Amino acid sequence: MKPLIAELIGTFALVLFGCGSAVLAGGEVGQLGIAFAFGLAIVAMAYGIGPISGCHVNPAVSFGAFIAGRMTLNSMFQYWIAQFIGAVLGAAVLYLIASGKAGYDLAANGLGQNGWGAGYLGEYSLVSALVFEIVATFLFLVVILGATQKSAPGMVAGLAIGLTLAVIHIVGIQVTGVSVNPARSFGPAVIVGGAAISQLWLFFVAPLIGAALAGILFRQKLLETE
Predict the structure, then answer these.
(1) In the 8-state DSSP scheme, what is residue 16?
(2) Can you give the residue ranges of every domain in the chain?
(3) 177 Cβ contact partners less than 8 Å away, ≥ 6 residues apart
(4) What is the pTM (predicted TM-score) of this model?
(5) Which Gene3D superfamilies match (predicted)?
(6) Greatest Cα-to-Cα distance within the chain, rounded to the nearest angstrom
(7) Domain 1-220, CATH 1.20.1080.10 — does that match?
(8) pLDDT, tens digit, for every residue of 14-70?
(9) Which of 160, 140, 154, 184 is nearest to 51 (CA)?
(10) How far apart are the first and last CA of the chain?
């Protein structure tokens, strides 16, 4: 149970702090601040729960680890359950906090949910959103799987992974709000509803494709050190 509790807490923190930076402080910190909130949340959790669960806090990361041969199918599904529960709890607590501000409206202000198209941030197309999420998740998993292989300097893995997530957000917030994480997308979407739910499929499909591509490279030892 320890790894599952750790994954639940880690995903909870990622959604609360990452999405919370957009919802509660977006006007003050801007896109760069939001990007670093997501990245630093991962850095913090990597060192906080990494020794217990590996700090996946992301179903795509668990899927990539499974494809790479580093995780069993059963463990992956257990991690997924913990991650999705943690994400929903994180979004729920964020909503509880945000709704205490005068003038806050769930439909208008949201919870940092992901999306694309007319009315969403940069109004990028479906194709742009799909390509970005696949490529960004692929590169994210290359860093994660590479930084956590046996020959890598383990003490700096959390920093490398967190900074990579920050860079991905700097580039992609205007495109999709950045998912690269089905649980991070799921938590806010189930509370906000509407377009966030109807567009949720992309934030499951694209990250899993990107993670699988990275996992295959490591499984085939193309990016593994001998």
Answers:
(1) I
(2) 1-220
(3) 22, 112, 113, 114, 115, 120, 121
(4) 0.95
(5) Glycerol uptake facilitator protein
(6) 58
(7) yes
(8) 999 999 999 999 999 999 999 999 999 999 999 999 999 999 999 999 999 999 999
(9) 154
(10) 33
Which pair of structure tokens corresponds to residue 104?
């806050």
Unique residue bearing structure tokens 């463990």:
75
Q: What would the 3-class secondary structure string for 24-92 be?
A: HHHHHHHHHHHHHHHHHHHHHHHHHHHHHHCCCCCHHHHHHHHHCCCCCHHHHHHHHHHHHHHHHHHHH
Which residue reads 């069993």 in tokens? 72
3-class SS at 226?
A: coil
Q: Give pLDDT < 50 ranges for the chain.
A: none
Q: How buried is 104 (Cβ within 10 angstroms: 0-12 exposed, 13-18 middle, 19+ buried)?
A: middle
Token pair listed for 100: 């205490």
Structure tokens at 63: 């899927």
Tokens 């996992």 found at: 215
pLDDT at residue 152 in the model: 84
